[in-house]
Design brief:
With 117 residues, the protein is an alpha/beta fold.
């Protein structure tokens, strides 16, 4: 079932970083600024993209494991995710604008491909 309330501050608090990222990495700062700027529908789409569900666990987003791994240098590659592991593979984009653009493009394309299956 899950909770419809999406507290991304709690998700940020429990996130683990791998493959060269830390909470202080510039790309990670861009990432959280982008995600926190999303409207509720975009937040649901993002959560669906990284977890396979658009709802938080019953105890909230702070009760889940979420991992962000560096997925290469800045490029045109879109972020990808391993939904079974709540694991986001995130290229090291060089601007906040590009970060937001690529995340939104990835989650919107994921939604379209899900509709066609």
């Amino acid at each position: 079932m899950g909770s419809p309330h999406l507290d991304f501050t709690e998700l940020q608090r429990v996130t683990r970083y791998e493959d060269g990222y830390t909470k202080d990495s510039q790309a990670i700062k861009y990432f959280w600024n982008a995600v926190h700027s999303f409207n509720e529908e975009q937040k649901k789409q993002f959560l669906m993209f990284v977890t396979g569900s658009d709802r938080a666990p019953i105890k909230g987003l702070g009760d889940m494991i979420f991992i962000i791994s560096r997925h290469g240098p800045d490029s045109e590659i879109l972020p990808s995710a391993h939904t079974c592991f709540n694991h986001l593979l995130l290229p090291d984009y060089d601007s906040e604008e590009k970060m937001k653009e690529k995340i939104l493009l990835a989650i919107q394309n994921a939604m379209v491909s899900d509709l066609h299956e």
